[in-house]
Amino acid sequence: MAYKISDSCVACGTCIDECPVEAISAGDIYVIDADKCIECGACAGVCPSEAISL
């Protein structure tokens, strides 16, 4: 099960730099590609709005 980004995402960009497999795409609300996500949790750990969860 890949991590997901909720509507509380503020598109700050912090998570993109943390993803080791480049699974996160920018936008009004960022999106995680479930096929690329390795469930490491690095993105969730740095998200200031706590918008990322399993």
Describe the 3D structure.
- The chain has 54 residues and is α+β, with helices and mostly antiparallel strands.
- It has one domain (4-53): Alpha-Beta Plaits, CATH 3.30.70.
- 19% of the residues lie in helices and 15% in strands.
- The protein has two helices and four strands.
- The chain has a two-stranded antiparallel ribbon. A two-stranded antiparallel sheet has the order 2-3.
- A hairpin with a 5-residue loop joins β2 (24-25) and β3 (31-32).
- The longest helix is centred in the N-terminal third of the chain and has 5 residues, at 14-18.
- The radius of gyration is 9 Å and the shape is globular.
- The mean pLDDT is 96.
How would you describe this structure in keywords?
2 helices; two-stranded antiparallel sheet; 15% strand; 19% helix; 54 residues; alpha+beta; Alpha-Beta Plaits
Summarize the structure.
The protein has 54 residues and is an alpha+beta fold.
What fraction of residues sit in β-strands?
5-15%
Please identify, by name, the CATH architecture. 2-Layer Sandwich
Structural class: alpha+beta
The structural domain count equals 1
What is the string of SSEs from the N terminus onward? EHEEHE
Kindly state the mean pLDDT as a whole number?
Answer: 96
Tally of separate helices? 2
Beta-strand segment tally: 4
Low-pLDDT parts are none
The main pleated sheet reads as: 2 strands, antiparallel
Q: Provide the spatial order of strands within the biggest beta sheet.
A: 1-4
